[in-house]
Amino acid sequence: MSRVLIVEDDFDILSIIEERLEMLGFEISSCGSAEGLPEALDRSQPDIILLDIKLPGKDGIEIARDLKADPKTEAIPLIAVSGNPDIGETKQYLDAGFADTCPKPIDYTDLMMKIARALGLQ
């Protein structure tokens, strides 16, 4: 069972993502801010991180760069999640270290394929 860490500040969206991914068999942990991320990483030791782009304090791109620069987290695949309609223009996200992007509202079939691909399961 793969462990997914979801970093999302909107509790309603977070709850839906958690519920859907748990139904698909993933072990889920979450945090709602950049400040809570170090503790969440230590607690959950995720196989993959779904990272919202618009977070209070630090944005997801800045967080991704930090994670990819840290030897303890550089190998964890990241998927950018955003309500921004430009999320499909992936160059800036790939340059920041994301494996893929996922627009909101989330298509869970598409997200499953992206998670599987990022984890090397397909």
TrEMBL record:
Q: PTM 4-aspartylphosphate: at which residues?
A: D52
Matching entries from PROSITE patterns are given as: RESPONSE_REGULATORY
For this UniProt record, the keywords arranged alphabetically read as follows: Phosphoprotein
GO BP field: phosphorelay signal transduction system
Among SMART domains, the record links this protein to: REC (SM00448)
Taking every annotated instance into account, which residue ranges of this chain make up the domain Response regulatory?
A: 3-119
Q: What is this protein called?
A: Response regulator receiver domain-containing protein
